[in-house]
Design goal:
With 190 residues, this protein is mainly alpha-helical. It contains two helices and no strands. It has helices at 2-98, 100-189.
């Protein structure tokens, strides 16, 4: 009985110890899970923060990349012109080394083409100037015609009023004459 009781007590102690250990393990597991969750949440927060920073940087880069072509357009055009100019100079230099007459011919052609360009520009500006002058003359003649028409209308209105006034005056005189004659007739007959 003592052995059995000793073993039962030992089993109970072991059971209690096992229970305590399992609770400690469970608490540790919960603590580990909680710790792991906090680490995971911190990691996700850090990743989200870094992602927003990357997005901001990429946004700045994109805006800068969109602005750079406009800002550097002039520089690129200048560089292209410089290269073209350098290429023309190189070609002219090579041609001058090969034949002096070709250089003179190229110079004459360049001079002729620039004179032709200037002449064409003058002709175009003359045509534009003449067109503008004819347009201004047309507008001025329309204004003058409108003014003359208004003056003619006023003159016709005055003539009409004068004619109408003359007609009324003669009508009134006729009525006065008729009234006098009637008055004389009444006196003679009367």
């Amino acid at each position: 009985w003592n052995t059995w009781r000793g073993r039962a007590v030992q089993a109970k102690v072991l059971s209690l110890r096992l229970s305590v250990v399992s609770k400690l393990i469970a608490r540790g597991a919960v603590a580990n899970v909680s710790f792991a969750w906090r680490v995971w949440a911190s990691f996700i927060s850090q990743v989200a923060n870094e992602e927003s920073k990357v997005k901001r940087v990429l946004g700045r880069i994109l805006r800068l990349q969109q602005a750079l072509p406009w800002a550097s357009w002039g520089l690129a055009v200048d560089e292209l012109r410089k290269r073209e100019h350098a290429a023309l100079l190189e070609r002219a230099h090579m041609e001058s080394l090969s034949e002096a007459n070709d250089l003179a011919r190229v110079s004459r052609e360049h001079l002729t083409s620039s004179q032709l360009r200037r002449t064409l520009k003058r002709m175009a500006s003359t045509v534009i100037r003449k067109g503008w002058k004819s347009w201004c003359d047309q507008v001025a003649s329309q204004k003058l015609a409108t003014l003359k028409l208004g003056m003619a209308r006023k003159a016709l209105a005055r003539l009409l009023m004068a004619t109408l006034a003359q007609a009324w005056k003669s009508w009134i005189e006729l009525l006065e004459e008729a009234a006098r004659e009637e008055h004389c007739m009444v006196r003679v007959m009367g």
